[in-house]
Design a protein that fits this description.
Blueprint lengths: L36 H5 L22 E9 L3 E9 L2 E7 L10 E11 L7 E3 L6 E13 L4 H7 L1 E8 L3 E8 L7 E6 L10 H4 L10 H6 L14 H17 L1 H5 L2
Antiparallel strand pairs: 1-2, 1-6, 2-3, 3-4, 4-9, 5-6, 6-7, 7-8, 8-9
This protein binds manganese (II) ion (MN).
Length: 256
């Protein structure tokens, strides 16, 4: 089974060719509009606050959008996204990234997202991913592999991140468990490696350090007056966030 959830297969590995430094592969216009069909199919985009399923032109520089979104939905997880060929390649990381090179974090590849998703922070009121999305880290990334498509097919991608919280060299390595799109995110040893758990040391948004209650309190209307849209541990967490959000937005709560 292919490692990707997108309906279009990845290009076949090509012979490695040398490109001038600082340039990424220039995708054809067709390749620049990779299908976001899976993204669109999972959501009611007419009702959701999430960005539309529109692919951007493939970037022609080495500076590609990078972001991590902390997403409290059925389970708390971190969505790790790398811009490539006009979309954001995406992995859901249950425990979040670790800056400790000795720690490998499971990263499940999920459907490609629009590049515009890289700045999304807000509430998904209902449906797929219902919950709160925090923009936990944002910046740029650049591949250390000559051919990103070939590296993805081979299941071994090396890259640099320059962002607010994550920096330096990283690797994504596909595990050989057949039929599962599972990868491992690993920090490569360098000056940015640290054994400090970055997700707990820096839990808030890159947008003014807001937390989940503050993001929820920004909504014009309470999305869940009858309680959280998910159950279990995530539901309990969300319930306490709803209470704290009401304290932050008392006027809105009074309108209920
Ligand atoms: Mn998610």
């Amino acid at each position: 089974m292919p490692p990707r959830t997108s309906s279009r297969p990845l290009p076949k590995p090509q012979a490695m060719t040398k490109r001038p430094a600082g340039r990424s592969p220039t995708a054809s216009p067709r390749a620049g509009r990779r299908l976001l069909a899976s993204y669109a199919a999972k959501r009611d985009l007419a009702r959701s606050a999430e960005p539309p399923a529109v692919a951007a032109a493939a970037t022609r520089t080495a500076r590609r959008t990078f972001c991590v979104q902390k997403h409290l939905a059925h389970h708390l997880h971190y969505d790790f996204r790398l811009e490539h060929r006009g979309v954001l390649l995406s992995w859901a990381i249950p425990k979040g990234p670790s800056t400790d090179p000795a720690v490998k974090r499971l990263a499940m590849q999920v459907e490609d997202h629009p590049v515009a998703y890289g700045s999304f922070e807000g509430v998904i009121a209902s449906g797929y991913g219902a919950g709160i999305v925090m923009l936990w880290d944002a910046g740029v990334w650049s591949p250390l592999d000559d051919d990103v498509d070939a590296a993805l097919v081979a299941g071994r991608l090396s890259f640099m991140i320059r962002a607010t919280k994550l920096n330096g060299r990283w690797s994504l390595i596909r595990t050989r468990r057949p039929g599962r799109p599972s990868w491992l995110l690993i920090k490569v040893q360098d000056a940015y490696a640290s054994r400090r758990e970055v997700t707990s040391a820096r839990p808030h948004s890159v947008n003014g350090s807001v937390d989940f209650p503050a993001i929820l309190a920004r909504e014009d209307r309470e999305p869940w007056p009858d309680g959280p849209p998910v159950g279990g541990e995530a539901g309990d967490l969300l319930r306490s966030i709803i209470v704290r959000a009401r304290r932050l937005a008392p006027r809105r709560a009074a309108q209920r």
